[in-house]
Write a structure and sequence with these properties.
Blueprint lengths: L6 H9 L2 H30 L9 H13 L14 H4 L9 E6 L2 E6 L3 E3 L15 E2 L2 H6 L5 E5 L2 H4 L7 H9 L3 E6 L2 E2 L5 E2 L15 E2 L12 E2 L1
Parallel strand pairs: 2-4, 5-6
Antiparallel strand pairs: 1-2, 3-6, 5-10, 6-7, 8-9
Length: 225
């Protein structure tokens, strides 16, 4: 059974000088600090990755040969078919387009979309150095003063239906550059495919084309300023 300290012993302890009390507590403090340092050192050792021997040159060579031997790409058969890019090279956008340029701005429209070019506007089909490329709608909205549009149908654009005579005359005499459009966007108008002429039995049938403007508009079709 533990003995309790008497009041006289407690008073003796309290009357000791502070320096004596500190000296008695110091061993306990040092023991606690040592235990904490030991715990930190053990944690660092457990977190540190294990040391391994460096791979030798022969080991590295062996690993490389094994990886090359197991490379799945080597099991693929070589392609013997022709490269589609070589047999069907992509078309050049510039060569398939007309350039409209004016006032430091430029845009592209398909070949054959320009139906009429007045002589005084021919230089506007040439690109000017440092001109800013715009979309058709942006360019057209800022150049309505010298560009007009003619809305055509799909059959007209395909060259299967000619322009009405009055519309063709308006295109021919227009003082503005005329661009064919389909649903608001520029479109190529192919040469008119004329129907085959009547032939005698046994004679071959031929089809001819002409470069006259195609596309007969509906009764409401007209040139739009």
């Amino acid at each position: 059974m533990a003995r309790r300290a008497s009041p006289q012993a407690l008073m003796t302890w309290w009357r000791l000088e502070p320096r004596s009390r500190i000296a008695m507590k110091r061993p306990l403090t040092l023991m606690l600090a040592a235990a904490a340092l030991a715990a930190i050192s053990h944690a660092d050792e457990s977190a540190r990755p294990p040391m391994r021997d460096a791979a030798t040159h022969d080991q590295l060579v062996s690993q490389l040969l094994t990886a090359q031997k197991n490379d799945p790409m080597k099991r693929l058969q070589s392609v013997t078919t022709p490269d589609p890019v070589v047999s069907n090279p992509p078309k050049d956008l510039i060569s398939d387009s007309e350039i409209l340029c004016f006032g430091g701005m430029a845009t592209l429209v398909p070949k054959r979309a320009v139906l009429s070019i007045p002589a005084n506007l021919e230089n506007r089909l040439q690109y000017q150095t440092a001109a800013k490329i715009l979309s058709w709608l942006e360019f057209y909205s800022q150049n309505r003063g010298w560009i007009t549009t003619l809305e055509v149908t799909q059959r007209q654009a395909e060259g299967k239906q000619p322009l009405a005579k009055d519309i063709a005359e308006q295109v021919r005499t227009s003082a503005a550059l005329v661009v064919a459009t389909f649903q608001g966007g520029p479109i190529s108008v192919l040469p008119l495919v004329e129907p085959p002429a009547d032939t005698s039995p046994g004679e071959p049938t031929t089809t001819t084309t002409t470069d006259t403007p195609t596309a007969t508009p509906t009764p409401t079709s007209q040139i739009h300023p």
